[in-house]
Amino acid sequence: MSSVSTTHPTPGPSVLVIEDEKTLAGMIGAYLSRAGYQARVVHTGPEGVQAVRDQTPDVVILDLGLPGLDGIEVCRQIRTFTDCYVIVVTARKDEIDTLIGLSVGADDYVTKPFSVRELVARVQTVLRRPRTGTSRAHRQEPVWVFGELHVDSVGQQVHLAGDPVALTPTERDLLMTLAERPTMAFSRRQLIDEVWGDDWVGDEHLVDVHIAHLRRKLGDDPDTARYISTVRGIGYRMGKG
Asked: Cα–Cα distance between 23 and 19 in angstroms, integer?
């Protein structure tokens, strides 16, 4: 008599939805579950911080207008202990909220109203981004040196004058991309394809926001750049302007 073995599907990546509009939150969670993700929903800022700490999700979908703690503060707090991907959701139209959100470590954003299918597609896109730099691990030069800036492609660490530089995952991926090909001038679209994926859709000026924060952390003046130069009419490259 032959035995029959049963296999259980491997659980998909985990996504935490922090959204106070309960109907919308439930809809997002349902779409994510149908797409194969492990979805959990909470409705306040403090619940969100605790859930990230307890559950260590792969992706957080974070509304900015939360009770208890707003999304900016939630993002600031969770960035002290996790580098999970963060996609900000906002109903606010003024650009400053988006810029502030990215400055504390968000990887992407969508503005309400939005298609839930589009949001799920954004989750799929960020999860396709490599997290450990394995694609660069075989390079002959594991550490790229630009003056006092040392970029470790294997260890995924950055040091400036011997001190570690705390970067968000997106900032680190951008820097690694530029450092890997220091003579190449990248357009915004090329950087998006490299870091966010070639199926990412949205405002390409998102790149400028992340580059600005990266420069600030490196103490780099765009007018007299030491590390990341603006190539007018094209985009950005590694090295002095």
From this structure: 9
Q: What confidence category does residue 140 fall into, taking pLDDT thresholds of 50, 70 and 90?
A: very low
Contact 204, 188 (CB under 8 A): yes
Q: pLDDT tens across 88-119, in order?
A: 998 776 665 666 667 777 888 888 888 899 89
Number of domains in the chain: 2
d(CA 36, CA 14): 9
The H or E element containing residue 48 is: helix 45-55
Is 5 contained in some domain? no
Q: Residue 166 and residue 229: Cα distance in Å, rounded?
A: 21
Residues 169-214: tens digit of each pLDDT: 888 889 999 998 888 999 999 999 888 877 777 778 889 988 998 9
Query: Which token pair is 112?
Result: 């309400």
108 and 207 housed in the same domain: no
One domain, residues 175 and 74:
no
Q: Do 172 and 98 share a domain, yes or no?
A: no
Is residue 44 located within the same domain as residue 112?
Answer: yes
In 3D space, the residue among 184, 215, 15 whose CA is nearest the CA of residue 116 turns out to be 15
Residue 111 domain-assigned (yes or no)? yes
Sole residue written with tokens 């939630």: 74
